[in-house]
Specification:
CATH superfamily of the largest domain: Transferase(Phosphotransferase) domain 1
Number of strands: 18
CATH class of the largest domain: Mainly Alpha
CATH architecture of the largest domain: Orthogonal Bundle
Number of helices: 11
Strand order of the largest sheet: 5-4-3-2-1-8
């Protein structure tokens, strides 16, 4: 349950007040002897906020509780009317705790991704995520439309915050046209928030459901190509997404962007707990033996997502099977047959992505190259074998007029506008 106690405004506005920043994140910012910041933590059992002075000393980072009341702030035997005045007093008159003199030298200010509640305006609820509710809003400074993920009240314990910060740590590393942009996180008071790019076209899964056969095959090819650009970027950054599916691809102004980094890990191998729930229908079968997710398990999931992109009308993969049956059959070698609307070239790539020998699957760079070739061919022959509605489709430039180093610039494609 969330606390009704509010952080005093004079504390929130301190440049070195980092709110509920977790210890592992704070420790990375406290680099030199004497570096310090003020943080807070929700004490769940009594539903009360606690404040701490975090400072790096010679023997490591220390955290000292600041006893805060509406009219005072106290640390050990030093007190003042506010935290700011207390810090100023401690700078000139250091306190000694358990034989260590707490010397404050450099206040560590918030980083560029640490926003404040006053920086965003909530507008409308637009959905729900793994650990909270998603709203459309605006950044006060730029008036830019944003998506705000709010950690739900029952998620304000340390476990909920930890899950949110896993996503924040990964997302702030990446910047690419086919990755949902990360604006920052907000921890200065409850509720805790993630601030992301707002995608006006919604999820690809919803587009596939809503438009059905009215979404042409060339457009579907462009969508899967753009998704491959995002995955190639992530893999080059040594990141496994671990939740590739059409529901986690968003569309903004016709551009497909990889989203939902809650399960993402910035490492090349990640050992998962197979006793916990997982997205079994997209999970590479060898994971049941090794427990390990890798780049090639992402590629397998991408192959299943390719099936999603071309199944008309849309259906969940293996829709006629229960989860246990999917597990048994895929481990025995069964694979989804290509949908009727899937071009044969795409079907061949899907087959390669899902072959049992994980090390023989194409890597993300090769996958993108293969899909680019098909996208170019399909664009040039839109009127061929598969009937599609007459519409203005996005195009992929040929390699003769697009340097290879700029193939990821698919944000210049101008596809049909999303249905309102």
């Amino acid at each position: 349950m969330g606390s009704k106690e509010k952080v005093p405004e004079e504390d929130v506005n301190l440049p070195y007040f980092h709110g509920a920043l977790m210890n592992q994140d704070a420790d990375q910012l406290l680099v030199n002897d004497g570096d310090f910041m003020v943080t807070m933590k929700l004490q769940a059992d009594i539903n009360k906020l606690q404040f701490f002075l975090a400072v790096r000393l010679k023997k490591g980072v220390r955290r000292y509780e600041i006893k805060r009341t509406p009219t005072s702030a106290k640390l050990v035997n030093r007190s003042a009317g506010t935290i700011e005045k207390l810090i100023e007093k401690l700078k000139t008159d250091p306190v000694e705790v358990k034989g260590e003199k707490v010397i404050l030298k450099r206040a560590i200010a918030k980083g560029k991704f640490q926003l404040m509640h006053k920086d965003v305006i909530f507008k409308k609820k637009i959905g729900a995520g793994a650990y909270g509710t998603v709203y459309r809003g605006r950044l006060v400074k730029t008036n830019e439309v944003i998506a705000v993920k709010k950690l739900d009240p029952e998620g304000t314990d340390q476990d909920g915050l930890a899950e949110m910060m896993k996503e924040a740590r990964v997302m702030q590393l990446y910047d690419h046209p086919n990755i949902v942009k990360f604006h920052g996180f907000i921890l200065d008071d409850l509720p805790y928030l993630l601030v992301l790019e707002f995608c006006n076209g919604g999820a690809v899964e919803d587009k596939l459901i809503d438009k059905g056969s009215r979404l042409s095959v060339p457009t579907r090819v462009q969508y899967i190509y753009m998704a491959s650009c995002g995955i190639e970027y992530l893999h080059k950054k040594n990141c496994i997404h671990r939740d590739i599916a059409s529901r986690n691809c968003l569309i903004h102004k016709g551009i497909v962007k990889i989203a939902d980094f809650g399960m993402c890990r910035a490492q090349s191998v990640y050992k998962m707990d197979l006793t916990k729930p997982c997205n079994l229908r997209w999970l590479a079968p060898e994971v049941w033996d090794t427990g390990e997710t890798r780049f090639n398990t992402d590629i397998y999931a991408f192959g299943i997502m390719m099936w999603e992109f071309f199944e008309i009308p849309y259906a969940t993969p293996y829709t006629d099977m229960k989860a246990g049956q999917v597990k048994r059959k895929t481990r025995a070698g069964y694979r989804l047959p290509p949908p009727a609307a899937m071009p044969k070239e795409i079907a061949e790539i899907m087959k390669e992505c899902c072959i049992p020998e994980a090390d023989k699957r194409p890597n993300a760079e090769k996958l993108k190259e293969l899909l680019e070739e098909v996208a170019k061919k399909i664009t040039e022959t839109q009127s061929a074998s598969i009937a599609a509605p007459v519409t203005t489709e996005p195009t992929v430039k040929s390699k003769t007029d697009t340097p290879k180093s700029k193939l990821s610039k698919v944000s210049k494609i101008d596809p049909p506008k999303a249905k309102k």
